[in-house]
């Protein structure tokens, strides 16, 4: 298994590598087009800001390369968002693999009062949330409402490519799939045994 | 539904887990890597490792330890203790830490939080505040592991730090820490309702009911405790089952 992690300016690559190691896998971290094209599977992780990440990918022609890949690709967190059509984060045109657009979480109340009966809703969302409506080989063997670890201030809307949902302020896409492309908004590399199962499922595709 | 987080804290001294009462009187509580992996297995939602003897000579020991933890732990973890610069933080990040916590250095160097947030994102920056309720009714910020009082109020400092880029606040009440008599409800509620970032309540957790109270009344997003877990007074599954029976959103 020739597994490649795409190296760019918004990676949480170390955590992904450690997670792969825990399940006995190795991966090559590279931005070399030839190595990426030759991979059996590609992981596209990401923590960071959309416009600077897209600019970095464009400058190196990695944008067209990623969008043209034929082998299974797994985008994680910002990786998923960059695979969408557009992100409201600094109004960024993204890779357009998924038609869904990425929007900012807007809390329903603007001015919170200390004595409000409802707790304040924090943005970004940080913590464990349940995923449901699971419809993909990626989630094979996982029960509905499995818990995964999320850290994000922007979310992909629901759409034709949604394969998992989560609720925060409103329902949104926790997972997307089109052809050979998969994306998850949460961090499988930090989502305990559920996350390990998802990574194993991706490797087994 | 987003769940409330239970976070065991491992205070590290010379590579071992220790736990004190009211910031002094340290007792040995075991190997941090083993303990961390055990807590993850038992259902801890995150871990916090605080190096309480972080000095320049010890930094290598800490980064090696972080690396070991990252290999064994499949949940997010925060590392703190002596982080004074982007370089300190980047060493911890490169060894697998998901977040760093800053405390004294962030007060002394107002540029530290904005620099860390710009370099690594706010989600990477946890502001740890040690605070004490004084006789004048105000919560003040203490530095250097609770040894040095400042004139900064907890609320002002938290607000300023969040504006500067802190992504979470780890709030330790020195009045409550080590007492096992419950968390500081009022100050947690005030910070949680006033600021847009998650608050991790710390100090005073002694029973499962204390955790229910800090989530329901203190509106904390997460609760941190150490000795009750280290000394097996309350197990994580036991605690989580209780909180679920209390109607609190908890991951199992």
- The CATH superfamily of chain B turns out to be Aldolase class I
The strand order across the widest sheet of chain A is 2-1-3-4-13-12-11
Sheet bearing the most strands of chain B, described?
A: 8 strands, parallel, barrel
Number of domains of chain A: 1
SSE series of chain B: EEEHEHEHEHHEEEHEHEHEHH
- Which structural class matches the secondary elements of chain B? alpha/beta
Give structural notes:
- The complex is a heterodimer of chains A (205) and B (252).
- Chain A is an alpha/beta fold and 205 residues long.
- Chain A has six helices and 13 strands.
- Chain B is an alpha/beta fold and 252 residues long.
- An eight-stranded parallel beta barrel of chain B has the order 1-4-5-6-7-10-11-12, surrounded by seven helices.
- The two termini of chain B are 13 Å apart.
- Chains A and B meet through α1, β8, β9 and α6 of A and α2 and α7 of B.
How do the strands and helices of this protein lay out in sequence?
The complex is a heterodimer of chains A (205) and B (252).
Chain A: E1 3-6, H1 13-22, E2 28-30, H2 33-38, E3 41-44, H3 50-59, H4 62-67, E4 73-76, H5 78-82, E5 86-87, E6 92-93, E7 101-104, E8 125-131, E9 146-152, E10 154-156, E11 162-168, E12 170-178, E13 181-184, H6 192-204
Parallel strand pairs in A: 1-2, 1-3, 3-4, 4-13, 5-7
Antiparallel strand pairs in A: 5-6, 7-10, 8-9, 11-12, 12-13
Chain B: E1 5-13, E2 16-21, E3 24-30, H1 32-42, E4 47-51, H2 59-72, E5 77-80, H3 86-94, E6 99-102, H4 104-108, H5 112-120, E7 125-133, E8 139-143, E9 148-153, H6 154-164, E10 168-173, H7 185-194, E11 199-202, H8 208-216, E12 222-225, H9 227-230, H10 236-245
Parallel strand pairs in B: 1-4, 1-12, 4-5, 5-6, 6-7, 7-10, 10-11, 11-12
Antiparallel strand pairs in B: 1-2, 2-3, 7-8, 8-9
